[in-house]
């Protein structure tokens, strides 16, 4: 092993080392600016840092006595492992070293290593290292997959090469050779666990470049698996041995180069190790790369679509390689052989997969009908298709004509009509290009990104998750499950789910664009006229139920009647209900909450009653009558029969003063308690009750006040929660006809991870009372709570929010929809603006998002009337829009203005 010259003793070593480290990073940055590939930059950085490592080692080595130098050089070696061993490093990557020694130099080598390691840290190199003998290393590698996989990349850079070669031989013999299956499984299990820890999906919108599915670690896994099975981690060697196709190797190399370059850019931008590709860095990188947007896609969306095309390809190739080359236990091979049977002497059906006899593969995959028969059979048996056969299908789809036959359409509809295994089947059809042949518009959705705060996945991933969500409803013991099971045309439903977001990325309203695509697809599939209309309706209206359930008062008969007229039939309502629930579920984990499920179910059941012939007003009156009877019972008041004199007119007056919405959605016990409090409440007093709910870890604050506090009550309560950094996740605002206020706020108290103590709730009750009566103001509260931090600023790539006024849906109120980014203080700013315009909030629905945050306010003017004047409506819209823009631009400063 050749050594480099030691640093001059006249120089200050750490100054020199740090300068060389900076030079290594600057060298990479210069290559980046000149347009070099990710591979070239990573190699150059690795070479420069390796030279620095050797310099530090040598300088320390030459400080030893000559006899000690000889002893250590003969009985030890220093090896780079892991990423350092691969010779590919980002500017702030860890340096992975193995200090290997023989027992003859235990104490001497230990002291030497301690000094070397200290020098590395002082230089600014982040080190991952271990000091071991050959036996220790092999033992460690057998039990720790992470160390074992790092050893695959091991090579000596200093010291006794024969010792390094001894370790490599021993490692292969004792860790790999006689335990291939165990090692293979250890690598795969460890990687799958790491994937889950970093999001579990390729198409998550803030991926980890290294560790998320489809990241660089997947390429490493494929190499480790290749080494385990075939003794080489080299992609070209695996290709020459026909273990992997040339096309897959090219794809992996292009993806590796792309991912490396992105990772290197992230490191340079952060000035430290940074592998998480956040939305902010995505915006920055799109600008750095001078990407130009299109009519339907922003620059950042085009950047991330390109990123996901690479990461998706990496994930798919790696998963196929693992599946194709996974060692099987002897028992499994025997079992599969005994259980395999053939169909028509062509198909081979194994317990866990479907295959075609090799000599017939090309013939079977030469037309779309035969390929669809394979997918139909696999779906029917609930098994997958063999990886080698999928490779053949993937190659064949590139050559097949786009025209569809009646047989191919019938086969596809049969697949789409199933209620199990459809999600995985469609995913595989998409990955192999079959789905693109059937529906050419699917190509547009490939890795298509929506750059916003609300979706967790790309359009294609969201779509398949929606399909899979709908399948789970089959066994759901709920109105949703019952509705799904009663749907007759499940192929039309599933086709609608597949197409519901296909209109995104065109620069138009995606529901309208999707409806046009659905109409075109319906003609392509030769659907009957009735089926065509049904498909187009479902795609066009896929947001309607969510809009009504989460943003409107569904106890309003006029809203229900208009919706029932639009739907027209129970079957269409069932399909729209299931589609809506599947869509919301697929937006991201935890989005389809129990609360949203109940709201959607309530709208469904009310509309179904109308479609069944019952008039909405009659139904509402009957329900209100039953509620009234239950409330009277809770108050221990006598029931009043028809034509009997009401001996408790005070109760009837108070009851009738509340909106039907409040009476129909509030438990009768709560209504009774509210009425009793309002009856006895002095005009100048406020009642506030807080209760912690362990199931949701939220606190529900109930505020009751008389008419003199009605106009500003909502705004002032919101100011208290905002000043304490609490998240308001829902609010029910009720103002009776006589002006009484009954408001409920469900909040998350961010100061407490578990149960919110009673003392905190009592303190909040006092703070709310003081705010409502005007004893405290917002500015003082914010200044007294200095822990309040402004949320991170949002880039101009996000819209600054908008205001929509609906004066049609409600006869009593004007409805204001505020569509904006979910930032701390938004509700406070908006509610203050509404209050200052002399408007009263009589009902509100807070943060009712599907793919955007929408705060909805039902308001009336100073005379308690709906706003009818066009000029005032325009002024309200203008003032709220300006408020939103100023808030987004100035943030926390706006809170303190009085």
TrEMBL record:
Domain ACT as annotated: residue spans: 815-894
Domain HD intervals: 459-576
Q: Where is this region: Uridylyltransferase?
A: 1-341
Keyword Repeat in the entry? The reply is: yes
- List the catalytic activities from the record: [protein-PII]-L-tyrosine + UTP = [protein-PII]-uridylyl-L-tyrosine + diphosphate; [protein-PII]-uridylyl-L-tyrosine + H2O = [protein-PII]-L-tyrosine + UMP + H(+)
**UniProt xrefs under InterPro entries:** ACT-like_dom_sf, ACT_dom, HD/PDEase_dom, HD_domain, NT_sf, PII_UdlTrfase/GS_AdlTrfase, UTase/UR
For this UniProt record, the keywords arranged alphabetically read as follows:
Hydrolase, Magnesium, Multifunctional enzyme, Nucleotidyltransferase, Repeat, Transferase
| A single MF term (Gene Ontology) | phosphoric diester hydrolase activity
This protein's superkingdom? Bacteria
Enzyme Commission code(s) on record: 2.7.7.59, 3.1.4.-
Activity regulation annotation text: Uridylyltransferase (UTase) activity is inhibited by glutamine, while glutamine activates uridylyl-removing (UR) activity.
User: What function is annotated for this protein?
Assistant: Modifies, by uridylylation and deuridylylation, the PII regulatory proteins (GlnB and homologs), in response to the nitrogen status of the cell that GlnD senses through the glutamine level. Under low glutamine levels, catalyzes the conversion of the PII proteins and UTP to PII-UMP and PPi, while under higher glutamine levels, GlnD hydrolyzes PII-UMP to PII and UMP (deuridylylation). Thus, controls uridylylation state and activity of the PII proteins, and plays an important role in the regulation of nitrogen metabolism.
Q: What is known of its domains?
A: Has four distinct domains: an N-terminal nucleotidyltransferase (NT) domain responsible for UTase activity, a central HD domain that encodes UR activity, and two C-terminal ACT domains that seem to have a role in glutamine sensing.
- Give the HAMAP family listed for this entry: PII_uridylyl_transf (MF_00277)
Q: Which family, according to the similarity comment?
A: Belongs to the GlnD family.
Query: What protein am I looking at?
Result: Bifunctional uridylyltransferase/uridylyl-removing enzyme
The organism's taxonomy opens as: Bacteria, Pseudomonadati, Planctomycetota, Planctomycetia, Planctomycetales
């Amino acid at each position: 092993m050749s050594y480099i010259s030691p640093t001059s003793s006249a120089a200050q070593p750490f100054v020199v080392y740090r300068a060389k480290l900076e030079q290594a990073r600057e060298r990479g940055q210069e290559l980046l600016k000149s347009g070099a590939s990710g591979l070239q930059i990573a190699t150059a950085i690795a070479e420069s840092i390796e030279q620095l490592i050797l310099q530090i080692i040598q300088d320390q080595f030459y400080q030893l006595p000559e006899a000690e130098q000889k002893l250590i050089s003969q009985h030890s070696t220093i090896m780079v492992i892991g990423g350092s061993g691969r010779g590919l490093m980002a500017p702030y990557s860890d340096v992975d070293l193995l200090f290997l020694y023989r027992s003859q130099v235990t104490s001497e080598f230990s002291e030497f290593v301690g000094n070397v390691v200290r020098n590395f840290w002082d230089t600014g190199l982040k080190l991952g290292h271990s000091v071991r003998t050959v036996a220790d290393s092999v033992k460690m590698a057998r039990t720790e997959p992470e160390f074992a996989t790092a050893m695959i990349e091991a090579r000596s850079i200093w010291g006794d090469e024969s010792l390094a070669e001894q370790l490599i031989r021993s490692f292969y013999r004792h860790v790999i050779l006689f335990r291939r299956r165990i090692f293979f499984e250890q690598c795969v299990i460890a990687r799958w666990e790491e994937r889950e820890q970093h999001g579990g999906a390729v198409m998550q919108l803030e991926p980890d470049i290294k560790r998320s599915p489809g990241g660089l670690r997947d390429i490493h896994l494929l190499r480790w698996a290749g080494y385990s099975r075939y003794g080489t981690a080299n992609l070209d060697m695996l290709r020459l041995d026909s273990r992997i196709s040339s096309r897959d190797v090219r794809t992996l190399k292009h993806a590796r180069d792309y991912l490396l370059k992105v990772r290197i850019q992230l490191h340079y931008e952060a000035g430290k190790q940074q592998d998480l590709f956040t939305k902010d860095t995505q915006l920055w990188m799109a600008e750095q790369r001078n990407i130009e947007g299109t009519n339907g896609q922003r620059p950042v969306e085009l950047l991330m679509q390109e990123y996901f095309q690479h990461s998706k390809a990496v994930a798919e190739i790696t998963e196929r390689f693992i599946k194709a080359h996974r060692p099987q236990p002897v028992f499994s091979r025997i079992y599969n052989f005994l259980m395999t049977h053939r169909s028509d002497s062509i198909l081979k059906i194994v317990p866990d997969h479907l295959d075609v006899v090799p000599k017939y593969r090309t013939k079977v995959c030469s037309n779309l009908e035969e390929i669809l028969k394979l997918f139909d059979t696999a779906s029917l048996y609930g098994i997958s298709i063999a990886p080698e056969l999928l490779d053949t299908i993937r190659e064949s789809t590139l050559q097949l004509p786009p025209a569809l036959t009646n047989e191919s359409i019938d086969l596809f509809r049969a697949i789409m009509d199933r209620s199990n295994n459809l999600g995985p089947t469609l995913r595989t059809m998409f990955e192999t290009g079959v789905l693109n042949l059937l529906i050419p518009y699917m190509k547009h959705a490939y890795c298509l990104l929506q750059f916003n705060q609300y979706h967790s996945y790309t359009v294609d991933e969201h779509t398949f998750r929606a399909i899979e969500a709908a399948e789970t409803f089959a066994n759901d013991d709920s109105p949703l499950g019952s509705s799904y099971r009663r749907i007759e045309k499940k192929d039309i439903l599933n086709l609608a789910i597949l197409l519901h977001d296909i209109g995104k990325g065109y620069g138009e309203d995606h529901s309208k664009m999707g409806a046009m695509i659905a109409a075109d697809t319906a003609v392509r599939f030769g659907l009957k006229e009735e089926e065509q209309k049904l498909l187009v309706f479902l795609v066009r209206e896929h947001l309607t139920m969510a809009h009504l359930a989460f943003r409107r008062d569904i106890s309003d008969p006029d809203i229900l009647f208009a919706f029932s007229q639009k739907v027209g039939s129970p079957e269409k309502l069932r399909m729209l209900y299931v589609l809506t629930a599947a869509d919301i579920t697929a937006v991201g984990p935890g989005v389809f909450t129990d609360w949203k499920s109940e709201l959607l179910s309530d709208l469904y059941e009310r509309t179904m009653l109308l479609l069944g012939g019952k008039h909405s007003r009659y139904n509402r009156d009957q329900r209100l009558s039953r509620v009234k009877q239950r409330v009277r019972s809770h108050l221990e008041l006598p029931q009043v029969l028809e034509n009997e004199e009401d001996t408790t007119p005070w109760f009837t007056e108070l009851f009738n003063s509340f909106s039907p919405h409040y009476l129909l959605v509030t438990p009768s016990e709560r209504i009774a308690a509210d009425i009793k409090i309002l009856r006895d409440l002095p005009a100048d007093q406020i009642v506030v009750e807080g209760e912690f709910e362990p199931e949701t870890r939220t606190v529900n604050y109930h505020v009751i006040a008389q008419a003199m506090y009605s106009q500003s009550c909502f705004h002032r309560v919101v100011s208290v929660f905002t000043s304490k950094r609490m998240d308001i996740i829902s609010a029910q605002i009720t103002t009776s006809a006589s002006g009484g206020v009954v408001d409920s706020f469900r909040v998350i108290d961010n100061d407490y991870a578990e149960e919110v103590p009673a003392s905190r709730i009592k303190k909040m009750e006092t703070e709310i009372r003081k705010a409502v009566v005007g004893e405290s103001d917002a500015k003082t509260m914010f200044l007294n709570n200095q822990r309040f931090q402004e949320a991170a600023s949002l880039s101009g790539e996000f819209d600054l929010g908008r205001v929509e006024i609906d004066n049609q849906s409600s006869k009593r109120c004007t409805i204001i929809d505020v569509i904006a980014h979910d930032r701390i203080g938004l509700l406070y700013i908006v509610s203050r603006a509404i209050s200052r315009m002399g408007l009263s909030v009589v009902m509100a629905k807070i943060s009712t998002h599907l793919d955007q945050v929408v705060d909805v306010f039902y308001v009336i003017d100073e005379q308690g009337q709906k706003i009818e004047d066009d000029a005032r409506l325009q002024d309200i819209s203008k003032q709220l829009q300006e408020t939103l823009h100023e808030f987004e631009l100035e943030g926390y400063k706006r809170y303190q203005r009085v």
